[in-house]
Amino acid sequence: MTLATLALFIPACFALNIAPGPNNVLAFSNAARRGLLVGLAGGMGRMLPFAAMILLVGIGLGAVLAASETAFNAVKYAGAAYLVYVGWRMWRAKPQAEIYARSDEPVTTLIRRDFLIAIGNPKAIAIFTAFFPQFTDLTQPLAPQYALLGGLFLVLECLAVALYAGFGAGFQGLLTPNRLHNLNKGVGGFLIFSGLALALNERH
Which residue windows are transmembrane per the record (predicted)? Predict the structure, then answer.
């Protein structure tokens, strides 16, 4: 793999990392409520699923999932249902008692939530399956190339988490109880919309 290839991969990959999907919006929301460090910690929940998906794609199982309509749909609908569930709870939370704004909610709960949202999105495997091969050299061993590309993706994903958490933390001091409630409803509505869009989106 050449430096020219990496120079193309890094900005293209980062564009995927910083897209305002459900995980990134949650990182922003967590940091806005609980501070930068909590936002960063919560956003790390996605790393294990993404690493596993990269590994699956690297050994060929990602292509199997991408080719199986039944398997793909099972994961898609489960992930969509979870997004709607989380979004509905956030939307319905009462002012000044939002379930996702509690200071006593364990950080492990935020990490687990990020983990479940990431693992319930089969589009990630589809992205890795379609995206990574464009930057590989088939005349060279694939395993080291996927390891490098996967490692870079995870590093850039951490940077995306830091950016969203940083922006969220910048709003922390501006959140009154009413604004916090509105933020909760806004994020909840976004998650519901994302879940419905995922469920209704036709596979390409």
Answer: 47-67, 115-135, 147-171, 183-200
pLDDT at 19 over 90: no
Query: Residue 97: is its pLDDT beyond 60?
Result: no
Q: Which string of DSSP letters, residue by residue, matches the chain?
A: --HHHHHHHHHHHHHHHTS--HHHHHHHHHHHHH-HHHHHHHHGGGHHHHHHHHHHHHTTHHHHHHH-HHHHHHHHHHHHHHHHHHHHHHHHPPTT--TTT-TTS-HHHHHHHHHHHHHT-THHHHHHHHHGGGG--TTS-HHHHHHHHHHHHHHHHHHHHHHHHHHHHHTGGG--HHHHHHHHHHHHHHHHHHHHHHHHPPP-
Q: Compute the distance between CA of residue 3 and CA of residue 77 in angstroms, rounded to an integer.
A: 39
Confidence at residue 48, expressed as pLDDT on a 0 to 100 scale: 93
